[in-house]
Each structure stands twice: as C-alpha cells, then as structure tokens.
Amino acid sequence: MSAKEAELIRELKHGSHKAFDRIYQMYARRLYAYSLQFTKSPADSEEIVQDVFVRLWLNREKIKQEETLCAMLFVMAKNLLINAFRSKINRPVFEDYLNFKNEISVNDTPNNLEYCDFLVQFQKALASLPPTQRKVIALSRIEDLTNKEIAKRLSLSEQTVKNQLSAGLKTLLHKIKRLYLIQEK
Amino acid sequence: MNNLIEKYRRNELTSKELLELKEKLLLASDEEIGRQMLEQWRSEEIDVSSVDDKRINRLKNRIDAKRSRKRAVFRRLVRAAQIAVAVMFPVLLSFSIYFYRENSLILSEEISVSTGKAERASITLPDGTIVSLNAESILKYHPRNYNKIERKINFDGEGYFQIHGDVNIPFLLYTNGLQVKVLGTVFNLSVRKENPTAELALEEGKLSLFSIRNGQSAVLHKNQKAIINQMTGEITLISDENIQDVSAWRRGDMVFRNTELAQVIRTIEVNYNIAIDIECSDCLSDTFTGTLPVNDLNEVLEVIERSYHLKALLNGKKITLMPEPDFRNQEPRLLRSQL
Predict the structure, then answer these.
(1) Continuous segment of H or E residues that includes residue B238
(2) How far is B10 from chain A (nearest CA, A)?
(3) I need a surface site. Which of B126, B160, B273, B330 has the fewest CB within 10 A?
(4) Which residues contact B137 (CB under 8 A, 6 or more apart)?
C-alpha cells in the first residue's frame, strides 16, 4: 500500500470529507463498471455503489489501517454482487435474452445487445400481446412463477399455461427481433 | 466455472452455457464465488471508459445527501437534546403541573370587574370586546367558557359595549330580567335597580333583546333605543338620532334631553358619589336639557341652581338644594369655598 493511500485512510478515519471525495473519485467508476458486469442493470449497480460508499463513511472509524482501499471496497460490495449475480442468472428473462442473442447472431453479425436494452424491448413487446398471453408471460418470466403456480393463480389448466407461454414467447421474441433489426438498420 | 463467469461478465454466454453455469452456481458456496470475484477484481484492468461521468457525479450527490454533513451535526444535536430532555424532564414536569394547576384555578374562577361610586373602568375581554363601566357597575364572566361556544357575561349597572364582531360565537349578556344577544355591535346599556326603567341604546349593528319577566322579545336596529320597564319587563322601542348622547359619560359628559330633574339628580348622585336632597314641591317633574360635566360638581350645581332657581347647601357629604329666595345674599359662595 502506498504512503499516499495510508494517509487517505487516516484522514478518512478522522472524518475528512476531502479524503472521502478523493476515494470516491478513485474507485467509484471501477466499482460501478464491475457491478454492471454482474447485475446487468445500471440502477442495480448504482445501488451497490451507493450502499458501499455510504457504509464506508458511516463505519469510517472502524476501518483497519492496514487494509488497502481496493480490497476493502470489494469486501463491502461482495455479498451484494453475489446476490445480484445469483438472482440475475436464475431469471427466466435472462434465458430468453441469451436465446434471443443466439438467434440473432446466427448470421455471424457481432451482436452487442445489452441485457437491459433487451429488457426494455421485452416489456414493450409484452404490452402488445393478447391479455392471457401477457399475464402468463409476465408471471412466468418476470415474477418467476412455475407453470403450476400460474395455472392456479389464473384459474387455467397447466396445459393451457404451457401452450400460451410457448406461443406467447414465440410471438414476443419475433416482435423483439423485428424491432431490433429495424433499429440496427 | 471460472470461464463461464468470465463469459457471463462479457455477455458472451450461450443458452447452453447458461444452464451449465446455473447448475454450478447452485452447488458453489458464496465464499467460493467471492474468492473468484476478488481475484478478478484485483488482477483485472476493469474497463471504465463507458462509465458516464455525469452518472458518477449524480450518484455522488445522492451519497452525500445520505451521509450528509448536516445529518452528522444533526445527530449530535439530537443526542445533546436527548440528554437535555432527560435531565430537564422532571423539572419541567413539576413546573408544568404547578402552572397547570395555578392556571386552571384562575380559569375556573369567575372574574368580576366592578366600579364603585364616582369610578369608571374599562375592560377588554378575551375576544377583544371592550366594555367601559360607568359608576357602580359590575361585569362577571367565566374565562374557561368564555369565547368557546358563546360569549356569556353577567352585568349590572351602566356600561358601554363595543362587541367584537364574530358571527360564529354569539355574545350573550344577562342582566336583571333581560337577555341581550348580539353578534357584533356597539351599545350602551343602563340597568340600575334604583331606576324604574332600564335603557339600551344601540349605536351600531343589530341586536336582539329578550325580556325574561314577560317573555317579550325585540330586535333593535341602529339608532334605536329600548326602554325596559323593570317591574313588568315591557319593552318600548324608540328611535333616537342623538343616540350617542347616552354614552356621553364616557367622554366626561352627562347629556340630558328632556329628562326629568329627579332622574338628572340621581345621575349626579351616582356620578359624584354624593347624596342630594331637593326641597321643592313641583320642580322634580320639570324636564332638563343640557350637558353636565362628570368631573366638576361646582359647575353642575351652578347650572342646576340657575336653571331652577335653587340654592345648594353643603352639609357633610350631603347636598341640599333649596328654593333660592331664602338664601339669596346670605351665604352666596359657601359651597364653592368648601369644596
């Protein structure tokens, strides 16, 4: 650890706002960019950065002098990152996103579609579906309910849910694709 | 797994690989995932070129608001206040109880304002109503109830009332055999037991009058005077363009218009706190018109002397008015020198 960083930590421990501002300018961008890789969502990433820096300030007196700022910030963000990672990867919509990406990159065009952009398109396309399909997809892809749970909640048979879901998703992805290709051109 | 996480971060995962990653993450502990993340965090150059500076600055403002300097100061103040409250609480509590009891003692008592002979007083009630009391008058009210749903006072004597206008809370005046209800007016009321009639002179606004003895009620308008017979309770209304004469006592004058001398003498007696004997057979029912001062007995007596050809004689606190011829030239200025 550099002498300069040790000095910054010392000042922060004594409640220096200047030191806090310096540390934020040094690490906030990096933490934000790193969080974004796991959350795939700007809002969630901002939340993590905010949470970490507010806690850093409130607990400044308990900071251990020998730890580096870099390691310290990661430790503070770690659990938030892991939680975001686990929840993101298990979202059905994320699977839809990857499917969609695979589909559109068939003809070898490099696709740089971001997950959050996909989500926006997904919501837009969802609104144009017939009511039953819309409800089934929202419950399945966004609220993560199983087909059985959806069937119970909407008073439908499980088979109907299954049919509506596959038909609905097909139309939905088709719509997104059309929108996406129009935008690309 | 490392490779898969890598691909996830770079958005290069395929659907098939996603399933694989999901399975592996399900089995992996948080420590394991955390270790790998730390490795990447430490060793990699993380690309921050796409991070918007505006976003980072906006976020900084939000963070600053959360950990606000003011808030830190505020928290310290709150702490200090908490200690202060803890220390002061018993003290304040006993003070509050003490003052509350004192206060309710005062509030629960009826307040009365009275004037003796030759005295005058002015009182402002809690609602802003101003009452001027002429000599030998009394006004009572309960401060706890006054101005809550009504403004109720008890009154006896003569007073000039400037009632503060309030449509929602009626002003009720109770006096010997009469109830006066107003919303906001100016009037003079004279209810004296020694007089056969009570008199209410309304200068402004409108009021209603209820005579308890005979159940008669009347509504008075501006420049009207009500004469109430104190024996029967009967109300007589008369219009009077010189209504302000009635309350002339407030300005230091007694104004009489065609008033019987007997009434004039009574007014002088109350006003100067003296007793007057008048020795004449027929002059008492004569009428008198004129203005007499309330603070110069000499002048008052001189006017009466000249008007009725009487002579005033002072005997202790008692004044005797005698027919003039008997005293002419004998004791011409006796009274003046003795007063």
Answers:
(1) strand B235-239
(2) 7
(3) B330
(4) B114, B115, B155, B156, B157, B158, B159
What CATH code would you report for B252-338? 3.55.50.30
Does B252-338 match B113-247 at the fold level? no
Q: Which two structure tokens, joined as six digits, stand for B203? A: 């200068």
The structural domains of chain A, with segments of one domain joined by +, span 3-88, 92-184
Q: Classify A92-184 by CATH class.
A: mainly alpha
At the top level of CATH, the class of A3-88 is mainly alpha
For A24-53, the pLDDT digits (tens) are: 999 999 999 999 999 988 889 999 999 999
What is the ipTM score, two decimals?
Answer: 0.77
Q: Could you say which of B21, B25, B46 has the minimum Cβ distance to residue A33? A: B46
Nearest chain A residue to B47 by CA: give it: A33
Q: What is the pTM of this model?
A: 0.46
Inform me whether the C-beta atom of residue A50 falls under 8 Å from chain B C-beta atoms: yes
Q: Of B11, B48, B59, which has the smallest distance from its Cβ to A46's Cβ?
A: B59
**Residue B37 to residue A28, Cβ atoms within 8 A:** no
> Is B157 in a helix, a strand, or coil?
strand
Provide the CATH number for the domain formed by B113-247 in this structure.
Answer: 2.60.120.1440
